[in-house]
Amino acid sequence: MALPTPSPASTAVVTGASSGIGAAIARELADRGHGVTLVARREDRLRELADELAGRVRVEVIACDVADSAARAGLFDEVDRRGLPADILVNNAGIGVTGKPLHETTLDEWKRQMQTNLRGPFLTIKAFAPMMIAAQSGHIVNISSLAGKNPLPNGAAYAASKWGLNGLTYSVAEELRPYNIRVSVVAPGSVNTRFGSGGNGKNAARKLQPDDVAHVVAMLVTQTPQSFVSEVLIRPTQKP
Ligand code: NDP
Question: Is-contact 88 139, C-beta < 8 A?
Fold first, then answer.
């Protein structure tokens, strides 16, 4: 059976849309005519982006902590209440506990890392996959990292969360393929955002820019219907 081409009238839920890569993904998808539901904790930042995109496509703002299961239920209820189709889910929200070896990482830091980067996508997929299964179509794009493909000294908890996200993605992709749902993972190298700004001596201008990652997401959701790109590794052309 041929996979359906994404409808330009579709709606994308983008987590972590209040800054950096998530905001760029939301802009890119809105530019292509997809409605966007912007999710993050900083509601003021989401509202600024919503104002910028308003008038072009349907934009919704849901202030929510994706690591919190009660908030996740609220997110799904809101999407349901507002009648949003949510046929694209981009799990982009993430944090990085880095800058120290694992043995100095506290249990609270470890929990916060895993709850945001791994439990968050688990909860959103639990919320939205049934809707996509019923529709027999959909895209789920998880934003991982090259730190999920390589060792990251002084960032073991972050690396573990992204290695875990990769394994989760590959497995869920196989679970949902029979329903014409394409589940992909994008693993960027250093991106010039708030997240990646922590004095690591890299040249910001040479880093990937948020739009580079957004372009990949647009590519994934416009892939020809009979195929899907399961994983993209993206690096800056010039080493930063
Ligand atoms: P930013 O810090 O700019 O963006 C992170 C986003 O995640 C923000 O919108 C933040 O919003 C949101 N977020 C964090 N925690 C939560 C939460 N508990 N609930 C809801 N939203 C949350 O960094 P980036 O844009 O760089 O990061 C986006 C993704 O890209 C992350 O998953 C990161 O791991 C990944 N990545 C980044 C790289 C880089 O070099 N920058 C490289 C490879 C991957 P708010 O604070 O308002 O909740």
Answer: yes
Instruction: Give 191's strand partners.
Output: 208
The pLDDT value recorded for residue 9 is: 60
DSSP helix, strand, coil percent of the chain (3-state; round to 5) = 45, 20, 35
C-alpha 208 – ligand 1 centre gap (Å) = 15
Q: What is the C-alpha separation between 73 and 64, in angstroms, rounded?
A: 10
Poorest-confidence range of 82-91, 179-188, 228-237? 82-91
Flag the least confident range among 170-179, 182-191, 197-206. Answer: 197-206
Ligand 1 pocket check for 212: Cβ under 6 Å: no
pLDDT at 198: 63
pLDDT tens per residue across span 192-209:
999 877 657 789 999 999
Residue nearest to ligand 1 atom 39, measured at CA? 191
Closest protein CA for atom 43 of ligand 1: 145
* Span from the CA of 91 to the centroid of ligand 1 (angstroms): 10
Least confident of 43-57, 95-109, 139-153, 197-211: 197-211
Q: Which atom of ligand 1 is nearest to the CA of 67?
A: 18
Domain ranges of the chain: 11-234
For residue 21 and ligand 1, the question of a CB distance below 6 A is answered with: yes
Q: What is the C-alpha separation between 11 and 130, in angstroms, rounded?
A: 16
For 20-55, the DSSP string reads HHHHHHHHHHHHTT-EEEEEES-HHHHHHHHHHHBT
Q: Which CATH class is domain 11-234?
A: alpha beta
